[in-house]
Amino acid sequence: MPTSFLGLFLVSTALSLAATFTVLGLRKLVRTAYPPRRRPIELPRA
After folding, report:
1. Per-residue DSSP letter, 2
2. What CA–CA distance (Å, rounded) separates 16 from 21?
3. Between the CA atoms of 18, 20, 22 and 28, what dihedral angle is there, to the nearest 10 degrees?
4. Secondary structure (3-state) at 38
5. How many other C-beta atoms are found inside a 10 Å radius of the C-beta of residue 25?
6. Minimal CB count within 10 Å: which of 7, 16, 19, 42?
7. Alpha helix ranges (H) inside the chain
8. Rounded CA gap, 1 and 32, in Å?
């Protein structure tokens, strides 16, 4: 088994994991900074 292929595989997996973690972190930051605006609850007219 060539070591270069193994190294490339490890680097690619590490990059993919880092990308997913960064995307999740950015989503969390955006949610905390800009919470989704909730529509005012309309009370049913009696």
Report:
1. -
2. 9
3. -150
4. coil
5. 10
6. 42
7. 3-33
8. 46
Q: Residue 25 — φ and ψ, nearest 5°?
A: -65, -40
CA pair distance 25, 31, nearest whole angstrom: 10
The span from the CA of 29 to the CA of 35, in Å, is 10
| pTM of the entire predicted model | 0.53
Q: What is the pLDDT of residue 3?
A: 79
Residues 23-45: tens digit of each pLDDT: 999 988 888 877 667 766 676 77
